[in-house]
Write a structure and sequence with these properties.
Helix content is 51%, strand content 0%. The chain contains four helices and no strands. The longest helix is centred in the middle third of the chain and has 14 residues, at 51-64.
Length: 88
């Protein structure tokens, strides 16, 4: 089991938030993207990653000593079988 799988298993035992439905627009600066989506009336395309993704990103950045995008981390988690609770 690799680091992402281990962190995910630990986090699944103690979920931090309820899931929200994911949509299309992806960014690492969630707050700015949210305000921009409000300004441009495009909230239906905004994707705010599940809290698991933020948690895992922080852990892998600490482990590897470099930064990762939220998209990169979420894609890796999905490749390992992670799904948002509303997708199961």
């Amino acid at each position: 089991m690799n680091l992402i799988s281990t962190i995910y298993v630990l986090n699944e035992s103690f979920p931090l938030t309820k899931s929200k439905k994911s949509v299309k627009l992806y960014t690492d600066n969630v707050l700015d993207a949210f305000y921009e989506a409000i300004r441009t009336n495009s909230l239906d395309r905004l994707h705010i990653p599940h809290s698991d993704v933020f948690y895992v990103r922080t852990a892998v950045e600490a482990h590897y000593g470099r930064s990762f995008t939220l998209k990169h981390v979420e894609d890796a988690m999905r490749a390992e079988g992670w799904k948002e609770p509303n997708e199961e």
